[in-house]
Specification:
The chain has 126 residues and is mostly beta strands. Helix content is 3%, strand content 40%. Bound molecules: copper (II) ion.
Length: 126
């Protein structure tokens, strides 16, 4: 069984593997404190484009883990941080799972996780 990092259950992951780029934004018109998609599977080398509404100043995004109501920034996360502007991107090269959160609203559920899978599997080799 896989750990549910930042409350991302296995069934909740949206499979976007094989796509050159994937967008993640808090763009729900009804509820601005959720990332869409919140939990996503991508391939190694996918460019992840983050967008914040109205901006990252209001929703500072960090790579790291929320556990027991505490958010911990992971200084080694390839997601890094976005604290200003409205868009940013990272190319995620190595496989692994990389959780992320909004530093202001993680307690409201504004967090997610990105699973990066090897290109071998991304090409449908199963
Ligand atoms: Cu936020």
């Amino acid at each position: 069984m896989t750990l549910a990092l930042n409350n991302c259950l296995d069934a909740e992951f949206q499979d976007r593997h094989g796509q050159a780029q994937v967008f993640i934004a808090n763009d729900s018109p009804a509820y601005p404190f959720v990332y869409r998609p919140r939990c996503v599977i991508i391939s190694e080398g996918t460019r992840v484009r983050f967008a914040a509404i109205p901006d990252f100043g209001m929703h500072p995004l960090y790579g790291g883990l929320v556990n027991d109501g505490q958010a911990t920034i992971d200084p080694n996360s390839p997601i890094g941080s976005f604290t200003s502007g409205t868009e940013g991107e990272r190319m995620l090269i190595e496989s692994g799972e990389f959780p992320y959160f909004c530093d202001f609203h993680f307690a409201a559920g504004m967090m997610g996780s990105i699973r990066v899978i090897p290109q071998l599997f991304a090409d449908g080799f199963d």
